[in-house]
Amino acid sequence: MFDKWRNAEFEIAEAHCDGPCGVYDPSQARIEAESVLQLTKKILDLKMPDGGDAKASAAYQNTLTRFIAIKEERAELAKHHLLVLWTDYFKPAHLEKYPDLHELFWKAAKTCSACKQEVSLEHAQELMDSIKRVHEIFWETKGKDVPWFTAS
Q1: pLDDT 10s digits, 72-110
Q2: Which of 7, 59, 82, 98 is the most exposed place for a label (fewest CB within 10 A)?
Q3: Per the domain annotation, does 10 fall within a domain?
Q4: What pTM did the predictor assign?
């Protein structure tokens, strides 16, 4: 089946990113980080049941476990979307105009990890603030004024 391609000559295609240009958008990271923020709030607001009510204790543990698992998953997804923007979208010309770009992304990725490791409103908000700055820079590079908004 593939014999006809074995000795064929192919032209090498080169691209500067994994996907076609125009498919990048920091809103994916924002949505995930906003979930981290909201889940962090829910975890901190969750009340442990009093006494020896086994059913209430099981429900509490189930809810807490689910919130933690989802928070960690969303923080990892936020990190993924940030890293894709950092490594695939932004180019050396962007670094010339925004010399703090590498530090911004590095700190944002580290903050994603902190959000997984801890239950910290401070870190969850710091992540949102970092992604807001990424959003601003990203849309400036495209020459567009896209307002920042959150779902909650």
Answers
A1: 999 999 999 999 999 999 999 999 999 999 999 999 999
A2: 7
A3: no
A4: 0.84
Which residue shows structure tokens 């990113």? 17
Which two tokens mark 97? Answer: 């105009």
Angstrom CA distances, 25 to 50, 89, 104, stand at 46, 9, 16
> Is position 88 within any domain?
yes
What letter represents residue 35's amino acid?
A: S
Candidates 57, 37, 36; CA nearest to 48 is: 57
User: What is the rounded CA–CA span in Å between residue 108 and residue 102?
Assistant: 10
Q: Which of 65, 49, 68, 112 is nearest to 86 (CA)?
A: 112
Cα-Cα-Cα-Cα dihedral of 110, 113, 119, 120, to 10°? 10
Q: Which domain holds residue 112?
A: 24-141
Tokens of 78: 């936020």
Render pLDDT for 1-37 as a digit per residue (tens, 0 to 9).
Answer: 556 656 667 666 444 555 555 589 999 999 999 999 9
- DSSP string of 27-53? HHHHHHHHHHHHHHHHHHHPPPPPTT-
Residue pair 29/120 in contact (Cβ under 8 Å)? The answer is no
Amino acid at position 63, single letter: T
